[in-house]
């Protein structure tokens, strides 16, 4: 049986089927219909039906922004507002009449990289997404760790470690309602907003990173702070989980300056006197999320058949 992964984003839905070797044998992309929940749900059913028609029986895994609330099975914390507080998982299982695995898109990214990506061969993988937001996921022995409250890996909504206004700038309220979340500083959005606030500029995160590479003084100065904030945040993960590898994805993962000297900076903030953890860019890039969703569904189907 092939493994169908569906990666749901705010602008597009991607469906990919993997064979047992992890090779992509089917791919379709659709613009996300998100004007209402019924329209969104019908589109997702059509995506599944089309894949079944084209390639036959499949296991199904879905990655999406947000998560399934443990207490009631409803979607929460999604930037696709129409699906929040909706029983998406239960409705899809009823439609498909088979097991369907659903997880956060950062978890799917991490699982993909742990199974056959940059984290392959490591027991404990911490996946880091530095893009518009700041996501994270944990895979242990090639299995996603969701946690009892399905909050495992949500490091972006811990307070930035060792925050001081003198060093890090003014306090900021995150979209989640909490103050000084790590995401507000080290995501692409956070980098851009904080830099522009300090220097009265209007640059995107990628513009800033290009300026760093070109040696522009303000960019180099602020990047030093940004990398230190990233190091503090990753050190807090080391002190709690001590993963075997960090795999970084998202738009900022492609910027070489990000990695230069980062391990030494993290070592300054960890409890141990040594820090040898590899920090590597994702192998599968933008495809990691949908590949992870496919592997997630394959695992759920295999367990259901046992």
UniProtKB/TrEMBL annotation:
This is ROK family protein. One of its GO terms (molecular function) is hexokinase activity. It comes from the Bacteria. The keyword Transferase does not apply. Transmembrane segments: none annotated. It comes from Musicola paradisiaca (strain Ech703). Keywords: Carbohydrate metabolism. InterPro entries: ATPase_NBD, ROK, ROK_cs. It holds the Pfam family ROK. Signal peptide: none annotated.
């Amino acid at each position: 049986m092939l493994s169908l992964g569906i990666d749901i984003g705010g602008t597009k839905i991607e469906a990919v089927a993997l064979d047992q070797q992890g090779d992509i044998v089917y791919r379709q992309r659709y613009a996300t219909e998100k004007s209402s929940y019924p329209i969104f749900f019908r589109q997702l059913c059509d995506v599944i039906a089309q894949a079944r028609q084209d390639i036959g029986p499949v296991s199904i895994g879905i990655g999406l922004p947000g998560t399934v609330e443990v207490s009631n099975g409803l979607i929460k914390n999604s930037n696709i507002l129409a699906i929040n507080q909706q029983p998406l998982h239960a409705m899809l299982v009823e439609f498909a009449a088979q097991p369907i695995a659903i997880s956060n898109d950062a978890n799917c990214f991490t699982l993909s990289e742990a199974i056959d990506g940059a984290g392959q061969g490591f027991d404990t993988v911490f996946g880091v997404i530095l893009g518009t937001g700041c996501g994270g996921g944990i895979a242990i022995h090639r299995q996603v760790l969701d946690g009892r409250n399905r909050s495992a890996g949500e490091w972006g909504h811990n307070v930035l470690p060792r925050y001081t206004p003198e060093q890090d700038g003014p306090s900021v309220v995150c979209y989640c309602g909490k103050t000084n979340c790590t995401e507000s500083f080290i995501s692409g959005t956070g980098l851009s907003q904080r830099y522009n606030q300090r220097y009265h500029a209007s640059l995107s995160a990628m513009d800033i990173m290009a300026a760093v590479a070109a040696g522009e003084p303000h960019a180099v100065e602020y990047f030093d702070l940004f990398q230190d904030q990233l190091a503090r945040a990753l050190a807090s993960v080391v002190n709690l989980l001590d993963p075997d590898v960090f795999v970084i994805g998202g738009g900022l993962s492609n910027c070489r300056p990000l990695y230069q000297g980062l391990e030494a900076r993290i070592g300054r903030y960890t409890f141990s006197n040594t820090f040898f953890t590899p920090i590597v860019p994702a192998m599968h890039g933008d495809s990691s999320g949908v590949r992870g969703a496919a592997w997630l569904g394959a695992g759920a189907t295999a367990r259901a058949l046992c």
